[in-house]
User: What shape does this take?
Amino acid sequence: MHVNTIRTQRTAGKMVANEPLWFRILLISLCYLIATVLIIVPLIYVFVQAFADGFSGWWKNLFEDAETRHSVFLTLMVVPLAVIVNTVCGVAAAWTLTKFRFPGRTFLMTALDLPFAVSPVVAGLMFVLLYNVRTGYFAPVLNYLDIKIIFAWPGIVLATMFVTMPFVARELIPLMQALGDDEELAAVSLGASPWQIFWRVTLPNIKWGLLFGIIQCNARAIGEFGAVYVVSGRIERETYTMALRVEKLFQDYNNPGSYAVASVLTLMALSTLIAKVMLERMVAASMNEATHKTGEHS
Amino acid sequence: MSISVQNLSKRFGDFVALKNISLEVPSDSLTALLGPSGSGKTTLLRIISGLETADEGSILFKEEDVTERSARDREVGFVFQHYALFRHMTVFENIAFGMRVRNAPKPEVRERVNELLHLVRLEGLGQRYPSELSGGQRQRVALARALAVKPRMLLLDEPFGALDAKVRQELRTWLRKLHEEMHVTTVFVTHDQEEAFEMADQVVVMSQGHIEQTGTPQAVFDNPATSFVMDFLGNVNVFHGRVKSGRVEMGPFNLQYDDYQHDEPRNATAYVRPHELDIDRAPSQASLQGTIKQINPAGSVLKVRVAVEEFGVDLNIDVTHYRAKSLDLKLNDKVYVHPRSVRVFMPEPDYVI
Assistant: This one.
């Protein structure tokens, strides 16, 4: 009898369905409670606070404050730069690590994950130590070329790049490993140049994964705080990104201003999330279609 | 375009994939590289195509040395084992790819692709994606794609390996006919001896990185050069014995063997193919008595297994349906078996005389 019950549960694939009702209600309520307290309430509260003085107040806080305006501009400049560089490097890294076998390959693979493991503050500090113009290791070179990295926007780009570097490559490496290099070899034998192979064969095959990696990289770059905080030096109208600006306004007891900027960041995050979900659906749909059609014709 | 492979060697780390291979592929011929997995046949094919580079040796197309030339410039049509079709392109674009990367004018591309779709009998499927095709159709697209750029030769890696038996049979016949129409030097790799023998003009049997034998299917089948070839080309019955003074003694059989006239006996192995054993009700000279243990129909013959108790061996014998009927063969019948021909291989002696 007992054995029989277990078998039924297995075939049904729903062990939970056989738990007592009160237990199920308890578990589900707990999930909702946690989601509400940790995610939903704060999310709504950001917008409630941001629009406390109505839309005009929100608008004023955002765009009539010159410093806030500059922080929006800085973020919109830094993030695309970091994302573009990371996309190019990420594709190159994934290509190198999957298509070639060379000594130190495993080490490079592991090193690629380092930015996820290292605290962003430590990363920021490392950049300060290396690139500051007085005691940094590269100070002579930087002084000679008259380039300022730390406490200036290049430092912010560097720090953002470091923190968001793994996203694209990590998304592409498993994908490219699964794809193999047969199609590229076929293209070679058909006379294609390396450049043609990349644009016509490799890129179309990895485009969804690449887009996914870029979206994630972008989201993280917009919100980056720790590493940027250290390297920026927090100079008004020079090195305040939006994330830093939120904190600054909050410290100055300017809650409406702080929440207004925070709401924009949140909106950006939400649109990223929506883009990600939509992308997942599109990929799933196109794959479903393919398998469906294969079933019909084979 | 003839292909000439000269003293080719290739290693992967400690593994020797090819050792000092030399091979001539005549112009317009259909050549099969036949061997078990790990024999180096695919490596050889890839080196000819330029997708792999050799450690030593050279490759000549006609008189021209192409060893240093990249796969891109060798103008070789290569068909991959798993087709390697571009999955995000339609059948049409797959076939057009080679012409597109050479910037061929559009009308010319369209004309050539349609011509090829007709050739591989896939008219009307140009706008499909590879995932929407059956295995046999994908195989033909791969072939059309390779042919689109008018290659100097066609190289196929296990072309029918991933297909089921019936489709494979159809495609073999079709490819053989196609080859006769096109006159393109073709080399294909296979581990299936039946496939090699059915299609090829020339069979190259390979094992462990070297060539065991090269010749027409008939020559290779009738006169296997080595015991490996004999063993690899289908079922054989193996007898161990020795040779001495122009005779070979294999347990019950004592037959004439002119190739060894010394008095000093030497170990030897004799191979007899199932169709070279004859079955009879009455004993004859040099025959063995045994009991029929199994009778299975296999196409045009019956496969009969006879247990010879005296020597503790099982013999596999191919008997024609006609012969089986006239002898009225049944399970557990006592029968006599004698060989019509025997092939003897002497292992290389351990010492030099």
In short: The first strand of chain B starts at residue 3 and ends at 12. The CA atoms of residues 100 and 109 of chain B lie 8 Å apart. The interface with chain A takes residues 49-51, 70-78, 80, 82, 84-89, 97-98, 100-102, 128-129, 131-135, 137, 145-146, 148-149 of chain B (CB under 8 Å).
